[in-house]
Amino acid sequence: MDSTYDYVIVGAGSAGAVVAARLSEDPDVRVCLLEAGGPPPPSELVPAAVASLQNDPATDWMYNGDPGGVGKGLIGGQMMVPRGKMLGGSSGLNYMAYVRGHPGDFDSWAAGGADGWSYQEVLPYFLKAEGFVNSPELHADPDVHGHDGPVGVSVRQPILPASAQFVEAAGATGMKQGDYNGRDRLSPEGVASLFQTTTKDGRRSSTFHAYLEPAMDRENLTVVTGAHVERVVLEADGEVVRATGVACRTEHGTPETVAAGTEVVLCAGAIGSPHLLLLSGVGPREELSAAGVACVVDLPDVGRHLKDHLHTPLMFAADGIGETMTEVAMSLGPDALRAPAGPLPADPADDDDLPEPLAAAKAEAERRIAEWFTTGRGLASSSLYDAVAFFSTGLGDEHTHDGQIGFLATGYTPPIWEGVFRLPAAAFFEDPESFLDPTRGQVVVLPNPVQPHSEGSVRLASADPQVPPRIELNYFDDPHDVAVMVAVMRRALEIAKAWPGGGLGEAVIPPHLAQAHGHVAGAEPSDALLEDLARHYALTVYHETSTCRIGDVVDPRLRVHGIDALRVADASVMPNVVSGNTNAAAIMIGEKAAELIATDHGVHLHEVVG
Ligand SMILES: Cc1cc2nc3c(=O)[nH]c(=O)nc-3n(C[C@H](O)[C@H](O)[C@H](O)COP(=O)(O)OP(=O)(O)OC[C@H]3O[C@@H](n4cnc5c(N)ncnc54)[C@H](O)[C@@H]3O)c2cc1C
């Protein structure tokens, strides 16, 4: 590994891939991008295969977090904290919802001191990144989309009837059908839509595919996979502390130092970046010394102010509405139908002499995946997290919509609920085998408050870089978040009642909670029951942010306080979590960071929009 570059970027995720690709547009600049994971597997491109990438150490860091006031019913009692570990980072693992946030989110960042981060100032970077392909079903606001950017943004084809019904039902409760990434997000009555997704021709458009793949051949860009960075190398000269490179372990476990002539940029995400700062001696002095790390710069807020979103699954039996898992598996090709979960033999070599129905199922699965491959169309073309509504509960945070309701068009299987989401099917359902029968339809409505007031933390558990940090999610620490969750759940139940054709019926209430609250079938669930449902079964929406936030840890140009030549650029710098899914904002941060760095050091980018 050549050890001298101008820029060393740590983490090839939603933001890091963007920073590396943009800076290396200037052929005179030498960029090294270090990524702990490897190239994504082929299934990463297939949107409906998304759940298979989670819980796999090859693609997921598989962190765990203490859930605080929720998680009482989850298997093991810990919340999963998946993070993408591959080129593309979490943009390779995520559910592909493309949501920028409410304009008021960014204006409140700027009002809090994040100069340059108001909505009008960040909008050009969203547009620069976006390659939007319109579709009549999206009711798109024509003035706020970029069409020439690298990240594919589109809607799945064909549209799923259930998702269109969700939007109609939300409309029946008073919400507008429109563009939640456009001016309709300002609608006081709320807005509902099919999800715009980070897909191109039915395939995932991660930042690996969008930014890095086209740049990999550049002579001035070195991308190293399997490189686990262990700390930033800091050199002190009198009062001045400067980042001069990073220490990492190669995929073979060999320690190496990679020197940075101009800057080190940490893009390791909301868990990885504070962890690396702490390992490097940058953080709260007492916490560092307790872990045996010498404090170089005492920065008390490193790893603090962690924000995340939670949603509580409301499940509905929906034969003829939801997509059955048999159909979903069939659309993912024959390998998704193999044993132990499916009816085909585990080894394709044993496919000779299949009985006629199985041979027909295999042929149909081959036809469907081939159709997706050639046209981008079919059930495989979205994660099935497929439609959404945003609105205000009226309980505060008037600068934005504080409620989101997501819609999942299928019910998944017991192994996915238990293995991926840690939700114990036997406790959640009266009769899990029958409810989650893969030949029957179910849908999941996901009430999701998006302006939590509770804050968690990422702390050093050990000075050993291989030991994961301690993650305290601290959900529901602030009672405000409980009230908002119950209000968003009520609105979700209203949408279910307004479903075209007479309503969706009753949401599943786990029998043990029904009994504890004296709930009888057909009755309206009480607030106490809804709260308890959330305290038992609310799940992370995977939106960790704000652990190196602008103001406390970095300045508005993303430079770490007290250290020269070190920036952080990823979801950790968000002063507060946006009121929606976080990938688009992380990409925007990567775009803006590249311009900030270019301006400070005379790097020539192809296009400057700020
Ligand atoms: C399962 C899941 C589903 C999600 N669904 C959605 C969704 O549908 N829509 C949406 O908008 N958002 C979604 N998100 C959130 C969104 O993807 C993230 O907020 C966003 O990707 C964060 O970008 P980032 O650049 O901050 O970090 P990441 O994209 O996570 O990038 C960090 C990178 O740094 C690397 N790294 C970390 N530590 C080190 C180290 N020590 N050495 C070397 N490399 C390191 C990681 O491997 C990774 O590649 C989801 C996230 C997950 C995990």
From TrEMBL:
<dbReference type="Pfam" id="PF05199">
    <property type="entry name" value="GMC_oxred_C"/>
</dbReference>
<dbReference type="InterPro" id="IPR036188">
    <property type="entry name" value="FAD/NAD-bd_sf"/>
</dbReference>
<keyword id="KW-0285">Flavoprotein</keyword>
<dbReference type="InterPro" id="IPR007867">
    <property type="entry name" value="GMC_OxRtase_C"/>
</dbReference>
<dbReference type="InterPro" id="IPR000172">
    <property type="entry name" value="GMC_OxRdtase_N"/>
</dbReference>
<feature type="domain" description="Glucose-methanol-choline oxidoreductase N-terminal">
    <location>
        <begin position="269"/>
        <end position="283"/>
    </location>
</feature>
<dbReference type="InterPro" id="IPR012132">
    <property type="entry name" value="GMC_OxRdtase"/>
</dbReference>
<comment type="similarity">
    <text>Belongs to the GMC oxidoreductase family.</text>
</comment>
<feature type="domain" description="Glucose-methanol-choline oxidoreductase N-terminal">
    <location>
        <begin position="84"/>
        <end position="107"/>
    </location>
</feature>
<protein>
    <submittedName>
        <fullName>GMC family oxidoreductase</fullName>
    </submittedName>
</protein>
<keyword id="KW-0274">FAD</keyword>
<dbReference type="Pfam" id="PF00732">
    <property type="entry name" value="GMC_oxred_N"/>
</dbReference>
